[in-house]
Design a protein that fits this description.
homodimer, two-stranded antiparallel ribbon, 11% strand, globular, DNA-binding
Chain lengths: 110, 110
DNA sequence: ACCTAGTACATGGCCATGCATAGTACCTTT
DNA sequence: AAAGGTACTATGCATGGCCATGTACTAGGT
């Protein structure tokens, strides 16, 4: 029961939400996402991101197309499907509710 | 990959944070906590709460004393230990950081 | 005294997710 | 051709929330 571990637990579910948002803004591939998440201090490693993307694809929320790169192997560029966009709207509401509820608990005044 | 499941995942770690906050405000027992969490629309069941309280106690963050009830069996009234108070301060910072980071991602404007 | 209902606490097994680690495949550079 | 880097894949572990169930004690009615 240490801080690091709790942070990991807090991240569960949120990562999926963040990734969906990043993809919703335009075609991106894994390294783009890692860079953006790192830039806002959400540290994520490949071993977390790739399985997550696979889950999202299997659930029909995202799709990808291979794009040649001129500086390495080809990349998978992701976009949201229609179902993905719908789901993202629901995630927005779910997340806001949760933050709201937590706020009520943690800023309770007697 | 459905909303309900994602909500469950989002709650991981947050529940611990909320419980710590509730206990920090004064002596409470399990039903008090359930009631307060329910009142802000965070649905929690006993099978989640009791193991969590046991974890917190084993980690030395909370302690309890038995108190007789005049309307049923005795209750365990919980309070934070000194270590628990310290940990709660860290949780506050961790949670704020996470919300902040998520905010940056989800309200990104091009 | 007995039975039923209610209250309070506890546990075992399941599941989904994040992570560590290792591995594959391809490209560029020298 | 060799070396290093980039992008993606696969496997197994740890954690925490949830469901179903169980135990123990109390209160109230008959």
């Amino acid at each position: 029961m240490n801080l690091e571990n709790t942070l990991v637990q807090m991240r569960k579910g949120i990562l999926e939400y963040c990734i969906m948002h990043i993809i919703s803004r335009g075609e991106v591939y894994a390294s783009d996402m890692l860079e953006e998440l790192t830039s806002v201090k959400i540290m994520v490693v490949e071993g977390t991101l790739y399985p997550l993307l696979t889950r999202l694809r299997k659930a029909g929320l995202v799709e990808y197309k291979w794009v040649e790169s001129n500086s390495g192997p080809p990349r998978k560029y992701y976009t949201l499907t229609d179902a993905g966009n719908d789901f993202l709207l629901n995630l927005d509401a779910t997340w806001k509710d949760l933050v709201n509820s937590t706020e009520k608990i943690t800023s309770f005044k007697n």
